[in-house]
Protein 1
Amino acid sequence: QGAGLLDTLRAVVVDSPEGPISVAAVHNPNYGSERIYVSANLPPEQIWAAMLNDKVIISEPLANRLDIPRHGGSITLATTGGLHTFPVVGVYYDYTSSQGSVSMSAATYRRWWADEAVTRRVNVHGARRILDACLEAKVRRLIMVGSASSFTPGPIDRPGAEDAPFPELYHGVPYMESKHEAAELTRQYVRERGLDAVIVAPTFLLGPFDSRPSGGEMVRQFLQKRMTMTSPGGRNFVHAGNVAAAMIAALDRGRVGETYILGGVNLSYFDFFNRVAKISGAPAVKRVLPGVALLAAGSAASAVGSLLKKKPVFNRDIARFSLVETFYNSDKAKRELGLPDTDIEVAIEDSIKSLIGYGHLALPHAEKFRGKVVVITGGSRGVGFALARALVLRGAKVTIGARGEKRLMDSKAKLERLGGEVLALAGDVADWDYAQKLVSATVERFGGIDILVNNAGVSMRGKLDELAPSVSEQVVRTNLLGSVYPTQAAITHLQRARGQVVFISSIAGIFGLPVASVYCATKKALTGFAESLRVEQAPHGLTAGVVYLGFTEHDPEKRILAADGSAVPPDRPAHHTQAGAAELIIDLMAKRKRSLVMTPVGKLGAGIYRLSPTVIEKAVTWAMNSRLGIYKKFS
């Protein structure tokens, strides 16, 4: 109360087996929480509960007094608004009399625009209070969480270690200076006052439970702003779970007064962001910006901010630090604490999953797909998998189907590591029984279907007079019946949801191409099917869209059917990436468009074909006969 944070006091009653217990509930507007002090013949500091967002954490004595379970219990309060029951989500234990251990992780971490006085009050004076409390309570050991920024980093071949001095680069930066001062203060207490303490110094943290976010903010910015350029510097990245494991190990294995850098892998920003792009489907980083240009932009932003008296998102300090390679060596922690070495891609996946879980990732059209149920055939690889990943990142629940079970399950696992709710069912979409199972399993798991994406398909090459009948049959069954059957099986659920069906077609569905006659026939058939469906189902609010892909980036193992039925590698260049195609399909779905033609060549050809099919036919014939390989390049 002396700090002026508590503004409202009210009396309430706790309903207990022994009858009502008086309670004084104090509202703290700064933190959106309440503390409840209970009068039950015990000192107030020993019986309390904290309320936050209508959930309660109670003390161990109060849990015992009211016979409340440690998990899944509830507490009933009579407030001015009436009688309310709140879930108990945890129990607070007081270890100060048992000589347990303490981990000091609390800190304010804002680096660039932090209020120096606030930063020192939390990171230095707060640390001193914990140090004094640990001495008074005679705790067995204190784990003080510092920062690797207390040590001068090095280049990739000579990374910084625990014997390096405080970096000159960080003089004047409140966060770095305060964390360094807190670590020095801890060492002083060890030397002069006999405190048993170990200091751990994490590098750049990624992983789960990043609620603010902190380390995940770098990932969030990259995913939302779709950056294709980056700065020349780099960092050491570590999974938060590895840091936690090393802290637990330090309770018994750490040496008193020693400091351990807890790091992972040293990566340039170029390499790091391209790994994020690979996992998330975001556009890859293609260029490293010159340092001079970054410094100039940062200086200009700082000048504008000073003029307008506003804190810019980007300034000279950020530009300066982005050029530095902050690489560190964690051999000491690996040797003495057994610091784990989780793959950086797992850390990135967990970071993305955390961003989604806490609602920090606002990708385009995310609000249209959050909680929606989407079924994607051919979803284990290629455009189908890229689309499933894009939907998972937007909070959709996804069912993927494909013939190959192993690849399908691997794809399911990848999507789940990003936080997705995913169902996978292997089978052939040209089989009516499988189509029914795919739909019924989805409805059983998720309660309905909002969108069906008919993506499964097979391509072929070969002149009609050379084509084996088995090839024609397989192409027709997969490309046509493989879209008709799932749509027919899902139609009543789609009607109920006033949903949509999306057909993944091809430029070959707009105008015919040589040596692909049967393939073209199936893709043109999808257009007719969608047009009929659109009119037929309009009274139910159901829409149908057709995506006309150009030749898309393919997986290395992708095969198409040759005229004799053998599987051969594709022989055309990619006009767009799988992730890029997925983003365009997301846009079509969000706006419930009728059609989408991809690639400039496809749009040009489609436009000309509407005006004069003869022109396109002559152009294709000329390209086929050209010695310059024009047809193969653009088809």
Note: Residues 1-15, 21-47 have pLDDT under 50 and may be disordered.
Protein 2
Amino acid sequence: MVDDDTESRPDADLSTTRGGGSMNPRRKKLLAKLFLVFVMPAMFFMAVEGVLRILPLDFETEPAVKIEGSTASFTEETINNERYYVASNESFRPPKIKIPRDKQQGAFRIVSIGGSASNGLPHAVGNSYLDYLQDLFVQNLPDQNVEVYNFGGSGFASYRLRTFIGQIEQLQPDLVIIYSGNNEFVEARRYATRSGMTWRIRQFIVKTRIGQLLSRSILQTKQIVLNNTVEIAVYDDTIQKKASNLRAEPGQTEIVLSEYEDNIRAIIDEALGWQVPVLLFTIPANLRDWRPHVSFSKSEGPERVKWLQDFTRGRGCFFDGEYKEAEVAFRKVISVEPLHAESCYFLGRALEMQGQKESSFDMYLQAKELDYGPFRALNVINETLRKIAGEKEQVYLVDLEREFISCAEGVAPGFDLFVDYCHPTYRGNRIIANKSFERIVADNLLGISGLTSDESAIQYYDLRETEPDSVGQYTWNKLFAWYVVLHQHEAIIALSNKLQTVEEGMIAQGTRNHIARWAAVLAEYEEFKNGKYPVKPWVDQAELKKFSVHLDFKRLYHEMIRKSQRENGLPDHKLPWLRDEVY
């Protein structure tokens, strides 16, 4: 028999709720607790979030690495009784850029941001593409007042540009040019891994204003405080080739590229918010005459010994002019180490020498993409820039990568258009000026009334004229020292050959002779490294010291001495030139 009391109690509870009576006290208390625990915090969160979204506060934050500080400072100063904005950074040319606060009636202002390729290095001041662009305005539109300001700096990555783009608005620009992409892997940093439940929760949190406030002190994994100095992470004090962790670790590479796209989009959106159009450049690079800085190799033990023998044999065949044999050797080593960038590069060289232009070009691109110490923009960066330009109105693309390829003397751009890996030559900068002016005029990006659309009436730079030495002897010497640091021995030889063909008077004879001596020494080194001579006498210390002192590179000289004695045990009067380890 069922107990009447236990059977009737649930019915009584139900009757009080279904009939509109009072709720059971225990259930009511439970719901009140749930309301206090879940609903009230949610309502409070939504209220605070709503207030924070209404307030004009800056909540911009990078979700993976905390970036604090600004790369450039903008101040307002009085100079000769005139008010100026002064932009300061040691990498600017000049380090303090003065812009009149009061823009003249009818004047147009063009502002360019980017890295050292944008600011005209290593040429003398006055030889950047912006200087040439301004000259084109003077030649073609002498009645128009067009001012150009260059805020490019050595090593500036997109996240550095993002820190000061907001301050550009006060300059009242009429056009913003973005030339950035070579420096994304330069500075040492590490990002939080973007995988797993923890990352998903984190991503949800940092999309809220409250989460962005918390992220400044809790969620970030590493802080970067920006200053005037860019610390290059792809080589160290022992002049060893050093892979960037950002490039060697696939998860890190993906984040760098994602952050790059976020930064470029944020910079563009900032400019478009001022109702200012944007000129966006893809990033050209020296493909033919600059081999990868660091190559990845995973083989070990006997397999690596055999692979290294094949690699050395392939180089030897190439420098002996046996290009088919070199091709066979490098295809073999790539089958073992498909991610080894330098093998891809030399296969490209061997294919080009056999007239296989398309295959050669593909290998040059692949070699650049596989570089684990990248100073050149990866191919995916240029694809990102093209995608952004295609999606956004008032963003106009100048595809410099393709333009430089079409203007190259060979199958791919080399020292005909670059003085090193990414900095354009005198001619290269004039190509940029021509294409920029062409796009500005074609779309009338400055809104100049009465602007002609007749292409035949526009004066461009003649790219066939002889190039003057816009670099100068001192800078050439510093460049060659930089090439040595980066182990670019073949680059020195190739550039020497190129410069020896320059018209007399364009480059000082002393510079020619000095470059030729460098090339001769390093050509001997290449012969030694490729196994042509089992024992090879080298430049003695006195001669080597004369080179290094002349280049203001004493530290490099002393490091080579220590490295040689420590690793090679050679007599003091014989010294190999920066042993070039294969990675």
Note: The first strand starts at residue 66 and ends at 68.
Protein 3
Amino acid sequence: MFFFDGSFGTYYKQITKQDTLPEHANINNPDIVFKIHKGYVNAGSNAITTNTFCANSLAFSTKEEIEDCIKRGYEIAKKAAGNNTMVFADIGYVYDNSNEIFDNPQEEYLFIADTFLKLGAKNFLFETFAEYEVAKHAMKYIRQHDKDATIHITFAVSPDGLTSKGLNYIDLIKSVVKDNLADGTGLNCICGPAHIKQLMAQLIQTENINLKLIAMPNSGYPSRVDNMYFYDNNSSYFAKVMAEIADLGISILGGCCGTSPVHIERMIDYLTNKKASILNTNDIGKRKEKDNEEVKRSVFSQKLEKGEKPIAVELDPPLDTDIGFLVSSAQELKKHGADVLTFADSPLARTRACSFLTASRIKREADVDVMPHMTCRDKNNIGISSTLIGGAIDGIGNILCVTGDPASHGTKGVFSFNSYNLIEYVNRMNSEYFKSTPYFIGAALNTSAPNFKNELARALKKEEMGANFFMTQPIYSKENIKNLKEAKKSLNSYILAGILPFASYKNALFLNNEVSGIEIPKEVLDSLEGKSNEEVREISISYALDITDKVYDICDGLYIMIPLKRTDIVIEVLEKVKSRRKI
């Protein structure tokens, strides 16, 4: 076993009662920095980390100030460590949400690493990272300058295993292993010991990791008092759970926020005296039991697998609480051949009823398969997880994952994920929580993209992340059909061709000029101008059927969107398509 120290930052605030960056104490109050380090040395730590987590351009104005902070911090740590304790150069993750300071964050880490190397540092800890790629350059630089250096990197994830960038911890750790730049990798911060234990157990159960694994959880979850965070003194509990983590085979242990020398001392004592409890395998056992459950797939997915060319029809959730039109329309659409009804997630960033709740209601009222859309705009990973679990409980088996239209009028979108991350996240939850009732995962494909080569590359990545099928934006032109053919050749997933009739000439102009991803040929727009409502209806239906004829043998199904509540238009299209469907 190898033991790191605990948190420097929260312990510094605990004993100084100051809510300031502890890194400044390297210069202003070196005695307190030495005292904290010495406390961890006396607690039995095999290694302490320098007080430099925030020694970067977000906390200091100039490179010279950063260098001075690192130099002093390293010297204090070396003095406190003596001859028997290792010192690790601590490089914290720099999260610049504004993107205004760092054009190239890799260069920031490289500068910090180089500063430590010049001081003679031999051991490095990249900690609390939300992504791996930004650290690789500096890690490679260290390895090139000192092949015997010890390099560890740890990631900060929430209990669902995702970083603040929406990246999954198992994939990050696998990338670290693949590159062979680090000696050890694992998790620290955000989670308390119980959740870190669950995550590490899952990692060990599913992957064969040939690096040393690291676990440095928070002591627990904090309370907020007067804009400051406080952690309970739970060192005995912390020690017990850390012993259970050690039983998993984790060989490098330490603490993060809320831990103190007392936590580390009790952890070491608990393990040294062989009081470690037997691994609690309840959670793992439950997962194994679920592996044997019969898998129930959505009706829509089964029809695609059988080659039946199912038809999805999109209905917009209401702007208010009146759901009468939606229920009656759903019942009619099912009667005339719709196989699955889809519900947009506040399209154009205009508030509508929740797509999942609406889908659940329609599923019950109309007894039809449903597919809610989910955007990354309005929910963080907690809200997304909650919604997915609720949908699964209610029997929803399909989902369309999209980034979502940007919010406007001063409203800020969340966008914790992009569509890739969301697809990967749903796929990951399928394997962990929804094994018997997995979501059938859909993604968007824009055949009108100016650079379709790039759009196809994006689709391939979505497929790699776990997308099972694609739904295209409305197809209107020969170029759209050409791109659809290209997509069908390149992708292994099912593709539903998008069909959107027009409700009026004005509606067609709006779609062409204001809705992203839609490009209607000029000759079609010209054919609608000056026509009566009935003439527009006939032209719209005729054109939709003509497009359907041209794409039917290319695609795996159809995705028909209702224009401005004109269900009658879509019902007529459905009736005409019926004769072409394979029964």
Note: The chain has two domains: 2-288, 299-578.
Protein 4
Amino acid sequence: MIQLDKHYEPEEVEKRWGKFWQEKNYFHADETLDKPTFTIVIPPPNITGRLHIGHAFNNTLQDILTRWKRMQGFNALWQPGTDHAGIATQNVVERQLHAEGTDRQALGRDAFVERVWKWRDESGGTITEQLKKLGSSLDWQRDRFTMDEGLSRAVREVFVTLYEDGLIYKGDYIINWCPRCQTALSDLEVEYQDAQGHLYHLKYAFKDGDGFLVIATTRPETMLGDTAVAVNPKDERYMKFKGKTLILPIVNREIPLIEDGYVDTSFGTGALKVTPAHDPNDFELGRRHNLPSVNVMAPNGTMNAEAGQTYEGLDRFECRKKLVQDLKNAGVLLKIEDLNHSVGHCYRCKTVVEPYLSKQWFVKAKPLAEPAMEAVRNGSIKIVPKFWENTYFEWMENIRDWCISRQIWWGHQIPAWTCKACSEIQVVRETPEKCSACSSTDLEQETDVLDTWFSSALWPFSTLGWPEKTETLKKFYPTTVLCTGFDILFFWVARMIMMGIKFMDDVPFRHVYIHALIRDAEGQKMSKTKGNVIDPLEVMEQYGTDALRFTLAAFAAQGRDIKLDEDRIDGYRNFCNKLWNASRFVLMNLEGYEGTCQLDEQADRSIADQWILSRLNNTTREVNQALEDFKFNDAALTVYKFIWNEYCDWYIEFSKSRLAVEGPGKKAAQNVLLHVLEASLKLLHPFMPFITEEIWQKLPKNGDSIMISAFPEFRADRSDAKVEEAMGKVMEVITGVRNIRGEMNLNPGLKLNALIKTGHADLEATLKKHAGFIRELARVDQITIGPDIVKTEVSASSVLGGMDLIIPLEGMMDFAEEKNRIEKELKKIAKDLIFLDKKLSNPNFVKKAPAEVIEKDEKRKTTLSEKQAKLETHLQTIEQAIR
């Protein structure tokens, strides 16, 4: 028989099997197969990316599903690919140019884009190689990129179709603008952070000299673009001023007092400055009241000529300082209040975002959102956990038009051409040769590119060959499930649903599994500034990839953030070692065995054999059901408990005496050991692909790889509740004896006598029939079982299910020495409990300490109290013996 090495070395094993799987083409799906399909598309990582713990988590879950379904016989496609990441990638290359003493303007657009492609070819594949190291069984032959030729064609087809359908338009609109990146940002690309600011109270005087109104603003520099002041028509404070005109301070522009129900009478003074070019709500107010829009800023965040000569050319924040001083000097500034408020920042460069009026391209979102909401309402798409549906509906019901244009060079250039002769705009699939209106050949393409999320929204069908009606598209669309984080539920998921229904007339996926966020061991969000980031590549190097994968799966409870501690990863590395050692034991005890892993139905099986086969069968059912329900943690922990607790700790121990004696019993034990080991490896394979392949290859099995073998299935005839109950009682007695031995500090090698009192005849018969297991595994000499057992004077006892276990102690220990040991331990525990009580009753500690620290101390107190109670009971037994 082939043997396993003494120690498991993950690095060499992972490289070997990763290469083997790819060379054998096992990850590849086949359109020609007549098998049920399972399709999942990867959320395409940015080409600028490096594998972080979030990537590792999400891709581990996707790989678990894919490997499981592949082993179940599905034609499984896990579609790979990367995203061109417009702003992020452009920033990377711009930094390179800056280091070289140049910039993109000096290069020109074509040369710059060529430079970005060069960077992508040289460095953009890093994350792909890291995903392979994770064991991701993606169909790498189908690797796609959001700017490859096929996807670019799909993007152009979608854009033109939406334009032709009246769902894309260009117009003046208030958008989020990043002065650093000098591009528009969608609402979802703005990150809000709490910041300390100020609220400035200003006097706006009436033109007729009849007093003034007080308005409050956090951005006084935008007042230079005010074109009205608004009040609520029902606000009695301002009814007498209806129709009046005010004078805008500093600028001295006349602006009207308007009335609008939008104004909140309870906020501030109830009088609102209206700046249509610099506030989204004011923009809507301006449209309703036909107000002019005065843009006082340049794209780079400096003030323009509309701001006046005094402020023109100043940075917006410099302007704020100067303007506040000027307002103060003019007697217009009444007061300044400190204000903690939420400020929008660019998600890429962290610059404060400016609401800004400009010409942009937009998608009309509401017509697309309606069918997308209905798809979730009617169950065509199921979101798991279900509570995320409420968030989805809330956002979709309040959806705004989607700003899809970006003022950068890297990305899909918008397929719109303007005729310089007559200003006609053509939006077409192929580059036009002349103007459709005047036949001029002097055409200029739109310089803006599309939002990165526009191409990503087409991912489930564009990667499968659309707009061509390919066999791949017919076979694998719609996809089965999407696995992603909640942070891109709207960025990506909702938009894929909208586009899928619009262009494929069907949903893009049947299920959306939303996984939780990974935090550090204390529950804090991971960040480089805090220094609490766990690097998956380092972890894989230290503990092995399987240990990391299993940890992530075991913690993946629905709707609950993960507190990731490296100690737990180390713990699951120990699980790898436990599995390895158990497999070594089995392989080392196959002398004379000529069979395979297939179960020998004619073998003379013991009750222990029947028990482990029944437990394997029920475990198989539980794992399959948990994975069907996306309960990855339940599936992982069910396999873990079966392998560690039942197979390794119990069944292997039960089998040892039979393996030592030649005959049918040995052959049966060898066969069951092998069969259950192979099935366990298969159950574990989606979670731990590398170690399971390595061990499986050493077994006397059929097939070329565990990853293409059949996943275990539940069989009703293999479960036996009576056998499980009987063995459960036997194991309960063995555990009871072991606990008493440990609690009473009895020598592990000491043979004990056991008395078992029970009034249940069937239980008495079961225990007598299988007393040999108790003698062997609990190291018991004599066992007496019956209803009339009398407890000996000096003994330790335990109440078990339907029986009392009694272990006579006379002659088994030095009672005086044991009494001394227990008293010392009780003294230490009492001291520790006094310290914890004092700590937990201190209001200052409870108020300031993190919840995790308090919880840890409370758990320790409970554990110590329980131990104290047990030791006190044992002490009474010892004192009784001494008397």
Note: The longest strand covers residues 190-206.
